[in-house]
Every structure is written in C-alpha cells, then in structure tokens.
Structure prediction request, 344 residues.
Amino acid sequence: MKTHAIIPIFIPHNGCPNDCVFCNQRRITSRMASPTESEVRQTIDEWLTTLGEVPNVSVAFYGGSFTAIPIEDQKRYLRIASEYKDAGKISEIHLSTRPDCIDNEILGVLEHYQVDLIELGCQSFDDGVLAAVKRGHGVDAIYKACELIKSGGFRLGIQLMVGLPGSSFEIDVKSALLAGELRPEVARIYPTIVIEDTELLDMVIAEDYVPLTIPEAVLRSKEMLKILRGYGVNVIRIGLKASDLITGDGYLTGTTFHPAFRQLVEGSIARDEIEKQLVQQLRLAPTEDTIAQCTAAPKSFSNLIGHKGENRSYFVEKYPNIRFVFKEDKTLEEGKYVLIRTQS
Prediction:
C-alpha cells in the first residue's frame, strides 16, 4: 500500500528575481499563468479523489521560487493548503524556493500557515559555478538560508544540479559533500539539461559550454548519491521526469535527459557493488561450473538487472566463463546487493 503522496501545485517563473542561464521555468512547468485559488482547490480535490486511502499526503508548491512571489499571493496559496491540513485531508505542506529569498519575516509567514518542508534550489556549493550560471547569490546565502530554516523548526531539502557551466566532477562531488554536512532531510539531484529560450543554449551554440553526456552525468550523480546517502539524506529525486519537460516539439535540446535516469544511476551502483564482490571472490580462479548468484531485495531487483537488462549483459559479456543467476532475496534490505559464488 502506498504510504505517501505529493500533490504538486506549479507556480510559474514569475517568482524568480532573475533568470539563471539554464532556466526557462515556463517550459518546465508547462504553464504561463499563475493558478487561481479555484484551480488550486480543484487540483487538490482531484488528486485526493484519485489517491484514495493514502495515509500521508503533502501539498507542494513547485515551479518558480515560491517565497519570491508577492507576499499576498503566498498567503492566498498557503491559506488554501492550510485549510486542507486543518481538515485532516493532507498531512504536510512543502514548497521550493531560492536561498536568497528566505529571511525571518518570510519564515514567520510560512510558520503561520503550517509549512513543514522547505526545499532550497542550491544548485552548487561553489561560488564560481553560481557566478557562471548568473544565480544572483553566493554560497554564503545558501548557508544562511539553511541555518534560518533549521533553526525555525522547518525540515530542510536541498536541490543540486550536475554539470553546470564552470563545474567539474570534483566540484559536483564536493557540493554533495557540503550539502550532506548540513544534514538536510531530503535532496534532489538534477543533471543540467539544455532547453530552448535559455542563455545556456546560446552558450552551447557558441561552443562556450559542452553538456555532459549521459554516462558522464550518471557517473557524477552516482558519486553524489552515495555521499548524500552516507549522511543519511533521503534523495527523493534523481533527474527530471518526462512529464516535467515538453519534449515533443524541440524544446529539449540537451543530452542528459533520460526517462529512466534514476535507474541508470541506481543500476550503476548495483553493478559496482556486485563487481566488487565478484573480484574479491575470483581470487580463486573460476572453473567451468562456477555460478555467480546475484541477489537483491524485490524493490531493488530492477536496479540489479539494470535498465533494459544492461547489467546482466555487462556481466555475461565480461565474464564469459561464469554463469550468472539473478534472484530476488526478501531478506535483504533495499539497496543491498549480494553475490554468492557457488559450483554447479
């Protein structure tokens, strides 16, 4: 049974004080106009009807930078969510915003309307990268906002981007490390995607920026995911969903969008874990009847196999003298991968 669901309310780009080079928020939200109060209520009611008996339901304001829109608009939207929370129809209120759009006055409003989780679009913990993408603030603003949010009793979320202009493998990994040290409750990892009507696309055309390939984005995201998990952070999203982007008429021009990007990352971790154990166990040379039994919890089994079976193919092709068997093991924790070497 599903235990948690999020009802997304998309607020367009007009909340942001400036345009970062990578952003055309109207394309991402697929909406030009701000939702009316009636539309917000209708969205929540439709989702609640569809969800049925889900015990924990959150309303989340996504899209632009929520706390940068006019304060009266913030109150109008939050008042609606708060009413549903008071009525017991939802359990939490979430929102996303920019680090430089958080202060004590804003947090006072959010507290009044019972906001639970604030996600910050930090993108990078490197001042050079933030300047290169014209983010409009430095790393100090990130630390200040995180401190205010946590000291105010709110739960903290951090969003990071991979492969931004001016970044590198080392910078992206360090950003994950610094984010983990802040102990956010949740995090998201987004590979940079080039979309139309952005300065980033102009940079690509001028050959001032080269987007990551999917394998490069997977490698960076994988290392960042492992670091964040090591700090106990729940990484709730890796990569954009297809529904987050308009892809049918040329708006998507980058190379790092993949509809199953998270599985590519999780599958890469699974492959690394199995191969590490395999190498250790191959200190004794394999014989013709060597069997490598690869196991994972049912929820992790698709990651073990890999997207479109790529992990299975990888092992069979690289180790032709070993017979690989892939099985579910209900006794294993999710995300744990175990190899057992046997003889037939």
The two ends are 39 Å apart (CA to CA). The first helix runs from residue 25 to 29.
